[in-house]
Amino acid sequence: MMKKSISMLVLVGILFPTILCSQIMLNEQKSQPQKMSRSQARITLLKSIALPGWGEHSLGYNTRGYAFQGAEMLSWAAFAAFTFFGNAQEKTMRAFAAEHAGIDPTNKDKNYFADIGSYEDIYKYNAAMYRNRSVSLVYADREKYYWSWDSKDNRQEFDDLRYRSGIYLRNASLAATALLINRIVSVIDIMSLTSGRIEDS
């Protein structure tokens, strides 16, 4: 249930500006658009790249501006939360493996942690790699990459921690994508709003 709620929050952050602004465009109209120079139009466009909604506010479309700003705040909040919880879970995961599998977590990549979550110890892992003729994946330096779980339950708990960390960090990437999409939609909106207003200087 928690994972579904988190994914839904990210999805809302991505779709929010597009859906809301499409509705606003039907209702918020300016009766007499003011003319502007090309330099003013470029500055307005840059405003929306820097902070979605800023350009809309400068043109007097405040409802649209608030919509984009709301999406921006939601996406930043989601990105910060997912990054925090993802890093916290990863730190807990590493400490847990050090305590219950005897590993040295220093300079170990995600492939290593995936391996130790799947095999009871380094010897069974290496034996499996030899059977599969995947010699390049064998941990030749057994002292550096050593692990041996003290119980199957702890290995499973570790793998759950690793999975949750990955989910949080993946969702942080989605939230970052939402920030990019918010800017793209805002820029397209500004281009639409300034179309026909620009005077040749």
Describe the fold and architecture.
The chain is built from eight helices and two strands; from the N terminus they run αβαααααααβ. The protein is mostly helical and 201 residues long. The termini are far apart. It has a two-stranded parallel sheet.
Rounded to an integer in angstroms, the radius of gyration calculated over CA atoms is: 25 Å
State the low-pLDDT regions, or none: none
Q: List SSEs in N-to-C order.
A: HEHHHHHHHE
Q: Tell me the span between the first and last alpha carbons.
A: 58 Å
Across the major sheet, the strand order is 1-2
Q: What is the quaternary state of this protein?
A: single chain
**Strand residue percentage:** under 5%
Separate helix tally: 8
Classify the helix fraction into a percent range: over 70%
So what's the overall shape?
elongated
What is the number of strand segments? 2
Main sheet overview: 2 strands, parallel
Mean pLDDT: 86
**Structure classification:** mainly alpha
